[in-house]
Design a protein that fits this description.
Blueprint: H1 2-24, H2 50-53, E1 54-56, E2 70-73, E3 78-80, E4 86-91, E5 106-111, E6 116-123, H3 129-132, E7 142-145, E8 156-163, E9 168-170, E10 186-194, E11 197-200, E12 206-209, E13 213-220, E14 234-239, E15 242-248, E16 251-255, E17 258-261, H4 267-270, E18 271-272, E19 275-281, E20 286-295, E21 301-312
Parallel strand pairs: 12-21
Antiparallel strand pairs: 1-2, 2-8, 3-7, 4-5, 5-6, 6-8, 8-9, 9-16, 10-11, 10-13, 13-19, 14-15, 14-20, 16-17, 18-19, 20-21
The structure holds zinc ion.
Length: about 325
């Protein structure tokens, strides 16, 4: 009897442990560091307040596609090559003055060791032949200046890092030295979309719903600059205690005619009308909870819980 009792106690202990560990996995973790690549480059723009100048991040929504690089607000500043490389492509408006500008403005691509490429867009007029005609260009050599060519809202450098001949695009922060940023993202509103109508779900609100509707969340990452509305790097969505989705923006790959992230999620899986898409959620009657953990690239984390009440009704909505 004594043995049986002990076995029972051990079993209970095991179950409790499994439940605790299981729950723990959806709570903020310290060890989900973003993928750092082995190779490290230098920043293309050398500026003291660089962190404040990074105005857009990798993976943000651009309506119907991902923002595939990092934007640095800048005009007429020297751009240094991020690592030793070779010119693979350049296009300036001077090449064909009669051609309509496609939006990217003047741009230059380089190849680097280990299968990386770097690309620079919206460059100021005036190709630097002296540098670009070299067989190999050294790390840190200035090859262009930042400008405002092509379609851009304000002068900035759009900066892209690709691998595998351009089929994989990665978050440039993965190969660049850390910049100062100790601020977590800002989780703002939970949004329920019914047809053309958006409803912001307020805390402790009661809602009448008849079926599943798309639920999304508005959030951004200001970093050091309060004027910025940059994208987040990853998030976890926990609906009524269950981890239902994790979204990450560390790389996108071109596969079967579509860009997908590292979890095989497409743009439409990740965004709903420009907001982060949690899912077409089926709520239970009564109290419902959605918890969100959002993180920037440097693992500054935010957590927010939304609680609301669902009254299931019959009918159109
Ligand atoms: Zn950009």
């Amino acid at each position: 009897m004594q043995v049986k009792k002990r076995t029972y106690s051990i079993l209970v202990l095991l179950v409790v442990m499994v439940v605790l560990i299981g729950n723990h996995s959806i709570l903020p973790q310290e060890n989900d560091n973003k993928k750092q690549e082995k190779i490290q480059f230098i920043w293309p723009i050398d500026s003291e307040d660089l962190s404040k100048k990074i105005s857009s991040l990798f993976g943000e929504s651009r309506g119907d596609h991902f923002h595939n690089g990092l934007d640095i607000s800048s005009y007429n500043e020297p751009i240094s090559l991020i690592g030793e490389g070779k010119l693979i492509y350049s296009k300036y408006s001077e090449d064909n003055p009669f051609e309509e500008d496609l939006g990217s403005g003047n741009c230059i691509w380089f190849s680097h060791d280990n299968g990386y490429q770097s690309a620079y867009y919206h460059l100021k007029e005036g190709r630097n032949y002296e540098i670009l005609e070299k067989i190999s260009i050294k790390s840190g050599e200035v090859f262009a200046r930042t400008g405002n060519t092509g379609h851009s809202t304000g002068a900035h450098l759009h900066f892209v890092i690709t691998k595998d001949g351009g089929k994989k695009i990665i978050d440039p922060l993965r190969v660049l030295p850390k910049v100062e940023d100790n601020y977590p993202p800002d989780i703002k509103q939970l949004i329920l979309t019914i047809g053309e109508k958006y409803s912001v779900i307020k805390n402790n609100e009661s809602l009448n719903v008849s079926r599943n509707f798309p639920v999304s969340v508005a959030m951004n990452d200001k970093g050091l600059n309060k004027a910025h509305r940059r994208g987040i790097s990853s998030a976890r969505f926990i609906v009524n205690g269950e981890l239902t989705k994790e979204i990450r923006f560390q790389e996108i790959s071109y596969l079967n005619g579509k860009w997908i992230n590292e979890d095989n999620l497409t743009f439409d899986d990740l965004y709903f009308d420009g907001k982060y898409f949690i899912g077409n959620l089926e709520f239970r009657s009564g109290e419902n909870k959605i918890e969100i953990i959002a993180s920037d690239f440097y693992n500054n984390r935010a957590y927010k819980k939304f609680t609301f009440f669902i009254n299931k009704i019959r009918g159109k909505y």
